[in-house]
Amino acid sequence: MSQSKTNIENIPAGAPWEKTGNTSWTQCPSCKGWFHVGPGILNRPDVKLHCPTCSADFSQSDAARIIKAG
Amino acid sequence: MPNARTARRIGVGSSSRRGTILDLRSYLAAEKASVFRPAQALSTVHEITALQYALEKQGRHPIVVVEKPTLANGTTSDIPVVCNLTASRALVAGALGINDHRSAAPIYAKKTGNPIAPKVVSAKDAPVQEIVLEGDKADLTLLPALKQHMFDPGAYLTAAHATTYDPDTGVDNTAIQRCWVKSKSRMSYYPYPASHNNRNMRKFWAKGQDCPVVFWIGHHPAVLMGTQAKLGYPESHWSACGGLIGEPLRVVPSRTFGDKIMVPADAEIVIEGYALKDQLEADGPFGEYTGYSGPQVAAPVIQVTCITMRKNALYHDYGSGLTDMLVPDNMAMEGKVYSLVKAVAPSLVNVHVPAQGRRFHAYLQFAKPGPGEVRDGLTAALAYRRLKMVIAVDDDIDLFDDSEMMFALATRVQWSRDSFAIDGLSGSLLDPSTPAGSKTLSKMAIDATFPLPPFAGAPSPVPPRSKVPEAAFTSATKALAGIDMSEWPTL
Predict the structure, then answer these.
(1) Where exactly does CATH 2.30.110.10 map onto chain B?
(2) Looking at the domain B15-316, which fold is it?
(3) Residue at A18 is within a domain
(4) Is A54 on the interface with B (CB under 8 A)?
(5) What is the percent of chain B with per-residue pLDDT over 90, rounded to a whole number?
(6) In terms of CB atoms within 10 Å, which of B40, B263, B347, B472 comes out highest?
(7) Residues spanned by CATH 3.40.1670.10 within chain B?
């Protein structure tokens, strides 16, 4: 996986006939739980992400990891 | 006919209903034989939704009323939760005064296509304003909102009908759009980007203003079905509701916005507020109609100004992704697809949008189609944004019976000849199979009809279906009557 930022990993695109999925995932910096996020919110770094497991609010730059589809 | 149901006396269009009020509580009273009231305590956190899943697994779809739901903080709410209200096609059709749910598509299309303007009543004649909570008394956390699924971050209003208006024309729009209750007076609200409410909100924001919005909860299923009408922009859902119920819908000016935004006078609960200009917060993940958990999104924020409700209010919840939510929307889709296809293919006789296909599949039924009509109809249906796969069958196939549909696919299709795909059409990006980053979908149409007869009156050039004489079948069915078959092997 290529890294455009230390905590963001992009899932590489495959051939057109290969399934690669369409869902991006974020890992909470507090509880380390994973939850899925849409492209719209990832395009808005000013909007804090919210962990549905521990209710932590955090900026994308503070996420433990972001695995980005597409 | 199997699954047919006699229309209820309360049913829309029934002369016996004239002069009576159409609301949720009168409907529940009329349908009491179809209502399940669990005796045990059930929590708003997962447990009520889990009951809906358990019922669905059993193939049963009663309306569920939880009289004293347990809230997330362990206290008991005095506001009952009503769910599974629209999980049965037969019940929904009955609420519309339709005897057989399988004939809903043309009737829905016709009625919503003949709008009737609403009737404005005064606040004293509006039960929904019997109790008015303003300022600090307006507390969203008093409502028994459900946390339905794992991954949902909190309690959501799932049957909140969001009404906004176009600031240019003043025309109202209503849609069911989820709200995550975040505090006493604040919630996130997700009008998906292609929705008319989103368009209205953006217009207000472009003018530098917060967007007025009201959310109303709980009404007769016929009114709920009216708000599912798939309209152009801007067109009033109040008028579509009126067309469907056959009389003007009773509405009352909202407390905060007056006659700029009306609310149904006979709803159970109304929340009024503003979508704050340009303010977005995280919303979700949320269990969606697809049967998957939709991703977290950036959603507008509502600042609540007022809550009104009836005395002894009922709280309505839609089980997201369950038949409870799929049935009413799919039946409304059937009306829309019927209108679209009928315009280009007059031999269309019926449409089914099956809950098993979420909102992605539609079955079209034709009777003696002319040359090209089936493919014309399939293409028109594919253009409808929500659909992804459309199958056409003849009128000897029961399009509400999947075994019949599979029979048609197995015996009437040569795939390279009878199927075609179109890429780049609009659709739901919540579909987990869409490629990452795509904005459009790949869609499929299948012509599972038989070939046309060579000339009028001639038999179709295909073999006849095997069958036994009707009298023999009736006699055999009688021979099985009263026999306990519960221990016999199934397929």
Answers:
(1) 15-316
(2) Pnp Oxidase; Chain A (2.30.110)
(3) no
(4) no
(5) 88
(6) B263
(7) 343-447
In 3D space, the residue among B27, B4, B5, B6 whose CA is nearest the CA of residue B245 turns out to be: B27
Q: What is the pLDDT of residue B8?
A: 43
B364 near B392, Cβ under 8 Å? yes
The predicted structure's pLDDT at residue B173 = 95
State how far the Cα of B178 lies from the Cα of B161, in Å rounded to an integer. Answer: 9
Phi, psi for B351 (deg, rounded to 5): -140, 140
What number is the ipTM of this complex?
0.86
What is the CATH class of B343-447? Answer: alpha beta
Asked if B152 has any chain A CB less than 8 Å from its own CB, the reply is: yes
Q: Nearest to residue A34, comparing CAs of A19, A48, A54?
A: A54
B298 and A24 in contact by Cβ < 8 A?
Answer: no
Domain count, chain A: 1
Reference A67, options A7, A5, A9; nearest CA is A9
Residue A36: which of B193, B285, B433 has the nearest Cβ?
A: B285
Contacts B434 to A, Cβ<8 Å: 22
Spell out the per-residue pLDDT of chain A, length 70, in tens.
444 457 999 888 777 778 888 899 999 999 999 999 999 999 999 999 999 999 999 999 999 999 998 7
pLDDT of residue B13 exceeding 60: no
On chain A, the residues whose CB falls within 8 A of the CB of B281 are 47-48, 50
